Amino acid sequence: MTQAESLTVIPDRHLEDFAMVRAFFVNDFIGRRASATRLQELEQDIYKVALITDPLLKSEELLLTTAARFGAQGLPTTRSDLLTNVVVDALTAVLEDNARDGRRNVVIIDEASQSGPEAIILNYIAKKVVVVGDDKQIRPSNIGIDHDEAEHFRKQYLSGIEHSESFGLTSSYFSQAELRFPNYIRLKEHFRCMPEIIRFSNNLCYQNAPLIPLRQYPPDRLDPVRTVFVGDGFTSGFQSNRLNKPEAEKLVEVVCQCCEDRRYDNKSMGVISLLGGAQSKYIQGLLIDRLGPEEIEKRGLVCGNAYNFQGDERDVIFLSLVISTSSDQGPQRPRALTRSADKQRFNVAASRAKDQLWLFPSVTLNHLQ
Questions:
Q1: Which whole number is the average pLDDT over 268-290?
Q2: What average pLDDT does range 231-250 have in this prediction?
Q3: What global pTM score does this model have?
Q4: Number of other CB atoms surrounding residue 61 within 10 Å
Q5: SS3 309
Q6: DSSP strand pairing (6-10 vs 185-186)
Q7: CA distance 275 to 360
Q8: Inter-residue contact 6 to 184 (CB < 8 Å)
Q9: pLDDT for residue 27
């Protein structure tokens, strides 16, 4: 289970609303307007649906089936088109299975904070649902979806449902459960991270109910938090395509050193970029060249952003902050990121590390606006 998760048991009432929600979120919203990022999130939901309904119902099998149907009808077979229809096919299979065998007594939905309101269809297949999640972690991103258009469809299809205003793009399946059934069990113990690492998350997100670290560790443990300041950091590009090559080079150098250090034997590793996806892809390319695929596979070394690591963990995490005061556009003064979405990303990124967290900043507190 993830940190600070809550459990919510949803009774039978309101189930009649879920069929109405499905018409909006599957046919009108997901079916025509999902971005590539959202489709990746929905593909994860398909696996959840498959585990709940029928072990034979796997997303790749559905993908092949949908591709064959598309090909027979002479329709486009891009992965985006296929995934969109896989979502509809999976949910249709859930409803058909439910109608044939009846609702399950209890269904457990883990990582509910990652799923959008469309996942509420899962409530329809069970008499009771246990919802597990953390509202301080990442919610669905919904990149590329027109918020005004989504709001228009929400008003058109869901105006008669209780709390219909909550079915927005910033809502998660977990927040839906919290809204309707506020009595929950909060887990206070934390088993993953070293105390010094989870202290960051406590200070950032859990001040009112700090997590209690329970990790036991030997006296010769790795230093829990290490910082390497990159004084010559320099960024190029814009937004999600922004690169800080000096920071990436330094990070890769340290990763290679750690792989040669016997203290890191059998330690899994991960690299997280806190700004866009270009930096993590660039770092991944450098690591492939310098470490080789075999070492990367042995370490379980994955490069990505906080969204890619939600629900995952590594013994050692390397964080690239990316931003700098120098860029190809001239000097820049970074601003502090204090929105709830930013805090959620930082919380997830830091708390993926079990034993050690490496930070690679190119700015100091004095540089922030």
A1: 93
A2: 90
A3: 0.70
A4: 12
A5: helix
A6: antiparallel
A7: 13
A8: yes
A9: 41
C-beta of residue 311 within 8 angstroms of C-beta of residue 138:
no
More confident residue, 1 or 336: 336
| Residue that has been written with the tokens 């000096």 in this structure | 246
Q: What is the pLDDT of residue 357?
A: 97
Residue 51, beta-bridge partner list? none
Task: List pLDDT tens digits, range 96-153.
Answer: 665 556 677 887 888 788 777 777 777 777 788 888 888 888 877 666 677 788 788 8
Better-scored residue on pLDDT, 11 or 40:
40
Say how far apart CA 357 and CA 224 lie, in whole Å: 6
Question: What amino acid is encoded at 191 in this protein?
Answer: F
Find out whether 15 and 124 touch, Cβ atoms under 8 Å.
yes
Distance CA 369, CA 365 (A): 9
Angstrom distance (rounded) from CA 153 to CA 159: 10
- Of 311, 307, 308, 306, which is closest to residue 350 (Cα–Cα)? 306
Q: How many residues does the chain have?
A: 369
For 30, phi then psi, to 5°, come to -65, -45
Question: Cα(173)–Cα(21) distance, rounded to whole angstroms?
Answer: 12
Buried b (16+ CB within 10 A) or exposed e, 189-201: ebebbbeebbbbb
The amino acid occupying position 143 is I
